[in-house]
Write a structure and sequence with these properties.
The chain is mainly β. It has a single domain, classed as Immunoglobulin-like. Helix content is 0%, strand content 56%. It is built from no helices and nine strands. The strands form two sheets. A five-stranded antiparallel sheet has the order 1-2-3-7-6, with no helix packed on it. A four-stranded antiparallel sheet has the order 5-4-8-9, with no helix packed on it. It is elongated and about 40 Å long. The protein binds copper (II) ion. The site of copper (II) ion has 5 residues, from loops.
């Protein structure tokens, strides 16, 4: 279990045009991010700042250089609107994590976060 104080917020991303009303606030721990297992925690809220509950979220990690297979992780909802996933960054370098979100009403939303400068082990 992670202490919330160990989480370093990476910032609140403005949603993409297709998901203007759904925003995501994410953090990743431990810091600094190193190759290997990291915990990605995130909160989904709607335009009224209410938690988006019951979403199924798959994370996809891609490196910014070609020739690497993506890594995937399924998130679990740990409290209403708050989710957590365990991602294995298989290499140091610059990553982009895509959030493939399927809301409980079936609507699909995409978000992403940049994870730059993952340290090599
Ligand atoms: Cu790579």
């Amino acid at each position: 279990m992670l202490a919330s104080g160990a989480l370093a917020a990476l910032g609140c991303h403005k949603p993409a045009d297709s998901a203007r009303d759904i925003s995501i606030k994410e953090s990743i721990a431990p810091q600094p991010v190193r190759a290997g297992i990291e915990i990605i925690s995130f909160r989904l809220v709607n335009a009224a700042n209410l938690p988006v509950t019951g979403a199924h979220v798959q994370l996809e990690g891609d490196m910014t250089h070609p020739g690497m297979a993506p890594v995937f992780a399924d998130a679990i909802e740990v409290s209403p609107g708050s989710y957590k996933a365990t991602m294995n960054f298989t290499m140091g370098g610059d990553w982009v994590v895509l959030f493939h979100i399927m809301m409980s009403n079936g609507r699909r939303v995409e978000q992403q976060m940049d994870v730059k400068g993952v340290a090599s082990n």
